[in-house]
Predict the structure of Thiamine pyrophosphate-binding protein.
Amino acid sequence: MNTDSTTHPTAWHAVADLVRHLGSRAVFGLPGDDMDLLGALEDADTRVVLCRDQRNALFMATGHALASGGLGVCAVGKGPALTNTLTGLLEARSAAAPVLLVAGGTGLDRVGTGAFQELDQLGAVRPLVKWAARVDDPARLVPTLNKAVTVAVNGTPGPVYVEIPDHIAAQPVLRSGPWRRAAAQRLDPDPDVLAEAFDLITAARRPVLLVGGGARHRNTGRAVEEFAARLGAAMFTTASGRGTVDEDHPLFCGVSGLYTVAPADRLWQEADLVLALGSRLEETAAFGWPEPDRLPVIQVVSAEDAIATERPGVCVLGDVRRAVDAWSRMLGTGTAGGPWPARVAEVRAGLAGRAAERARRAALSAGEDGGVSVARVLSALDAAVPGDRILVQENGLQDMWSYFHPHWSCGSTGGSVVPSEQTPLGFGAAAAVGVALAAPGRPVVSVAGDGAFNLFRTELPTLADAGAAVLYVVLDNGGYGWLQTNLDRVSGGGSRFSFTADRLTGNEGLAASFGLGYWRVDNPEDMDHVFRSAWKHCEAGTSAVVEVRVSLSDTPPGMAGPAGDFPLREDG
């Protein structure tokens, strides 16, 4: 008989007890008038990050979940507090990040009366979460929270929502047994499907291995790299899969799709099979691939909602690591040789040479415009910050440089957190706080455009209070560079509208107000010294901001010009 029975004095005390069970290092949010959650966590080890904006709270919880591999937790009030989280929920769902959002709600006795901040909150959040529930009976809170956690971490992970309305918030809650297991269940793929896929694998002569975000935290012991070596497969990641594999590996050729440049793009045209591990094959990941009927795909994903059926091939439902281990056993020992691995080695050498030439041209162009090239920024950052750093990125005009290997490499020990296909502006800057708290002891760097950083600036006091030491690199092109380049494409540069302007940002004064370090770089010769100084500041435990003047003309590799959502690709 289970004797683990506890009566929590309020519903929010039960939530606090669940947080302790989860082992969460941090809870993010902005409570409403009900402070019971903070009261219940007053003496706990869990850090509570009180944000200024609920959207950023969701971003931080998402970053924490992606970096830790566990559940991110966010708590907010009701009404507009809840609607402020919707962009964050959209991103968490798209990023497959397991996040538990707990919010207040209008009491049952006042629903439909025009009560203060009354809203159909379930209707608002349901399109953006895996599962949502409102608890109108305190006896239902514990089972509801148990289900929410289970749904969030299993299958394709994602955000879940639990609403605690006013009429039960202060009532006692009985938990008659222990909290349920909070870890994901890793399911074995069907042996018959594995065998069907293995026939395609052994028949392939020019395979490409694509590692997606669904393989995060599943590549212990470098199993994926060993599998690639046995196949002799070219190895790419999606943007969200970076940091999963060793980017110094001799078979690694960069990021797929939108972020693949010559000569690595030729491998996709020459390949005869793709093994996609933990990727939903979104548009950016498959951008520039051959026509669907020319390139079959074996896709390994954890749940049926992630299946992509546009190409011929096989879908394997189950855990990425277990599929890789099974195929490795079938392959046996040894490393593949032959013309394809040699071709991959040739491409890697070509990537390095082309990257050096692109960086040289970018430096000349940026210098003519009075800025610093982003390739030079990344080089100085690489030299100043230890190799096990986690780079948290945005997805704007200039910060996209860091998506292109080898202009930026995660190496063998580095990590990466990027926005999903939704790419909400400001996600990376805010998520970096959650990443830093999820990975204490590891360096965390955020690279953001000035437009994205401006959306985050309201959280600078939150950053100071949280004790998260993040190095923020702000690429200042005067505003929204991607929008400006698209406007210039339409107007020819003569528009009365503008998304950029040469003005003071005010970041120096803000950083000083909250005890953060600040440096400004306008001359490339100052770059190395500034980054070394800024990183020493972060090592001492305080965040720092380095603002770098960059030029709108410093477009990322492979980009011949803007064309709406996606750039025109350069030839060769």
User: Anything to note?
Assistant: Residues 339-368 form the longest helix (30 residues). Residues 6-175 form a domain with the Rossmann fold fold (CATH 3.40.50.970). The two ends are 70 Å apart (CA to CA).
